[in-house]
Amino acid sequence: MRFIVLSVLALLALAAPASAQSDRPIADRLPLFAKNNCQQIRDPGNQLFCGDPTLAAAAETLSTAIEARLARLPDRLPAIEENAIWVRQRNLGCGIVGQSAIRTEDFDRVKACLLKVTEERAAIVGDPGFDCLAANTAAGAVICADPSLALAETELNGLVLGLIGKLDPTAARFAFAEYGRWTRERDRKCNLVGKENVPLQELESAEDCLAEHLKRKTDEIRAAKGDPKKVFGRQVAARVPDTDAVDFCAARIHAANSCGNFLRINRVYALDSQVTDQEAQVTGEIEMAVLAPFTMCSKVASSCTGTCWDARTGRPQPGGANKERSAEAFNVTRRLRIQRTFAFVKAADGWRCREDELAPVTSGNASGGS
Question: Which of these, 187, 104, 111, 87, lies nearest to 142 by C-alpha position?
Fold first, then answer.
C-alpha cells in the first residue's frame, strides 16, 4: 500500500511494539489489520491507518497531496522533515502518547480525531501556497512575506526541477545536494543563519540580498539553455578554505554516500583553519537533521555522520563501541552536530576537499527530536 510507503517516509515507527495483549482488542476493530500485516507497524496511530478502511482512504489522499508537493520542490528534504513533525504532533493532538497502546475505550475518539486532522492536512498540503507558509527558516519567512520574492523563488524552483529531471539518478543526487548547498550559502551571505526566531521586520534588510541571489541563479539557469551540465557539477572547489569550502566538502560527501536518504545538512561552520601555500586543514562544525531511521552504529552512521553513536548519552562511540546498542536507530528530526577537521589541497580552480566520508569526527552530540 502507498500508505505504508508514506509511513516509511514519515519515519515514525521507531520504538518497541506494544504487547500482544494490548494489541488484540484494537486489532479486532480494524478490518484490514490481519490482511495488511498491521502488527508490524510499531506506531499506534499508523496502526489505525493501516487497519481501518476509512482512515486508509484518507491517508491515501494525503499521500497523493504530499507526493505532489514533493514533486514541485527542488529541495524535498525540509518538506519530508516538516511532514514527520506534523505526524508526531498529530498523534499527540489525538491523545496518542509515544508508543503507548490506544485504549479500547478511546478507539472511536482517536479514530475520529485522526480522520479529521488528516482530511484537513490533505486540503492544506494540496495548496501550492502552503509551500511558502511551511517555510521553517528565516530566509523562507522573508521570501514568503514578499510576493515578488515568492514568485521569483517559485520560478527558480521550476527551472531547477526541469534541469535535474534531465539527469540520471546519480547525477541528480549530486545536483540536489548542490541545490541544498546553494541555499546554505545564500543564508550565510544574507546573514540569515540562526535567525528563525527573529521578528520578521528585523529581517527586512535581507530582502535585497535574497532578490539578488534568486535573480543570479535564475539568470544562470536560463543561460544554460536547458543543459543541466552547465549549471550543476561545475563548481567543485572553493575560493578560500573557509565555511564555503567545508560546505562544498560536506555536500559532496553526502551526495556520494547517498546520505540525503537519511539526513539533511542544515548548517555548516568553519571554526579554525591552518593554511599553507598548497594545503589546508579546516576544522568545521556540521549540523544535520535525521529524515529517516538509520542504525546508530552502521555504515550510514559512519559515512554520513562520522561516527557510531551511543543511544544513552547521544555522544560519539568511535570504532563501533557499545555494540549491544547497535540495533537502535535515530528518530526523525533528531539533530546531530559534529566537529571534524577537513583536508584541502590547492588546485587551479580553488581549494578541493580530499575527504570521501565524514569519519572520523573530533566530537559530536545528538539532541532533540524525541
Answer: 187
Question: How long a stretch of residues is the chain?
Answer: 370
Query: Which of the two residues, 218 and 234, has the higher pLDDT score?
Result: 218
Kindly tell me the sign of the dihedral angle through the C-alpha atoms of 203, 206, 80, 365. negative
What pLDDT score was predicted for residue 23? 45
The Cα 213–Cα 59 span in angstroms is 38
Q: What residues pair up with 329 in beta bridges, in sequence order?
A: 295
Helix orientation angle between 107-125 and 53-71, rounded to the nearest 10 degrees: 20
**Domain layout of the chain by residue ranges:** 2-131, 137-234, 235-370
* pLDDT in the model for residue 74: 73
Tell me the three cell numbers of residue 126.
494540496
Q: Which is nearest to 358 in space by CA: 309, 315, 307, 308?
A: 307
| pLDDT number for residue 10 | 41
Confidence of residue 248 (pLDDT cuts 50, 70, 90): very high
User: CA dist 239 to 80, 202, 235, 339, 343, Å?
Assistant: 33, 31, 10, 22, 15
SS (H, E, C) the chain: CHHHHHHHHHCCCCCCCCCHHHHHHHHHCCCCCCCCCHHHCCCHHHHHHHHCHHHHHHHHHHHHHHHHHHHCCCCCHHHHHHHHHHHHHHHHHCCCCCCCCCCHHHHHHHHHHHHHHHHHHHHHHCCCCHHHHCCCCHHHHHHHHCHHHHHHHHHHHHHHHHHHCCCCHHHHHHHHHHHHHHHHHHHHHCCCCCCCCCCHHHHHHHHHHHHHHHHHHHHHHHHCCCCHHHCCCCCCCECCCCHHHHHHHHHHHHHHCCHHHCEEEEEEEEEEEEECCCEEEEEEEEEEEECCCCECCCHHHHHHHCCCEECCCCEECHHHCCHHHCCCECCCCCEEEEEEEEEEEEECCEEEECCCCCCCCCEEEEECCC
State how far Cα 169 lies from the chain centre. Answer: 19
